[in-house]
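call fold(seq) -> C-alpha cells
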Amino acid sequence: RGQTPHLTIRPTMNLRNISCHSWNGDRSMIAVCPNNNKVEVYSTPSPDPSTWEKLATLEEHDQIVNGIDWAPNTNRILTCSQDRNAYVWTQEENGAWRPEMVLLRFSMGATCCKWSPRENKFAVGSSDHAIAICYYEEENHWWVCKRIKKHKSTVCSLAWHPNNYFIATGSTDQHCKVFSAALRAVDGRVEGIPSFGTPVCDFDAGAWVPQVCWSPTGRQFGFVARNSTLNVAEFAHPEPASLQVLHLRTLPHTCLAFLDEGRLLAAGHGFNPALYQRGEAGWAFVKHVDTAAAGSRGRAGPKTGSVSAAFKIFQNKVNFGQNAAAETEEQTRHTNTVTAMQPYTIEGESVTRLTTSSMDGTVQMWNVSEF
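ret:
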C-alpha cells in the first residue's frame, strides 16, 4: 500500500455519521458503525475509497452500537451496544459473519469493548459501573465473563496493557483506574501480577474520562478528560505511577493514541488533531496537524441563510471569543466531533499512519511523517 497523506473516505460509504470504526489485520477490510444498531463491513483493496465495496451488514444488535474491535490475528469482530449485549462475529467459509452472544449479565448498556493483545480474552465496559473480562469456555462452547465493579459510574473507555494482564479504564465517575485482569482460566498463574480485579492505580481526572490508551511498551498510559486536560502517567508496577497533567486551550479531546514512546496524537470536539511530544520538561503541545486549516480561525461549512449566519456568530463567540462570524473559514478535514482513532500502519513500535472517524460521516487517514 502506497503512502497516502490525505484520504477522505466519505464518497463510497455515503454515511451521515460514524460513531466508531476498526480495521482487520491486513487492512483489507474495515468495519464502521453509522451511529445506529448496524455495523457495515467494506472491502478495502486499496486506500482509494472509489475501489471499496460493501461486503456485509451485521444486524444482530437492537440499539446503537457503541464499540467495534477487530482482532487482527483471529479475524473475529467484537461489537457491543446500548442493548446491553456484545457479540463475537466469526467469518464463515462462504464469507458470511456468524454472531455468538456473550453472557455479560449487564442491567444497563454496554459502552466500549476491546480485545486483549493475545486475543484470548476481551473486555466490555458498561453503564452498569462494571467491566466484564470475557473468555471462551470450551466445555460449554460459549463466551462467559468475570466482572470488575469498582467504578461508581459508567465505564466510558478501556485499554489493555501490552502484557495482556492489566487494563486501564476511564469513567464518568471522573476517575481513570488500572486493574489486574489476569484470568487463571486463560492466563494460568502469573508471577508478580495481583489477583483478578485488584486496583493497581487510580487517578482523579476532575471530569469524565472518554478515552484511555497505552504506549507501545506499556511504560506510559494517557487519558483525556472533559475538563480539557490531557494526562500522561508513568507506569512501572509495582512502583507508584506518576502523573503529568496538561491544561489545554482548546475544546476537550475525545480520543488519543500514542505514535511512539515520545509522541501522541489527540482529537475531539476541536475537529483538528493535536500533536504532543515528550521533552526534558515533560509532555507539551506541539501543533495541530491539519495543515489545511492553518492561518484561519472559523469553521468549515457552506454559507447559508441568516439563521445559519446568526448561529455562526454565536459559535465563534463561544469557541473563539469573536463578536462576529470569521471572515476566513477554517477548512478542517473533519467538520464534526472526532469519535475514534485507529492505527493503520505500524513499523516496529511506531505508528506511521492512522485513521480517525467523525460524526461528519468521514474516515480520514493521516500520514505521521507529514506532522
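Confidence is low (pLDDT under 50) at residues 1-5, 296-305.
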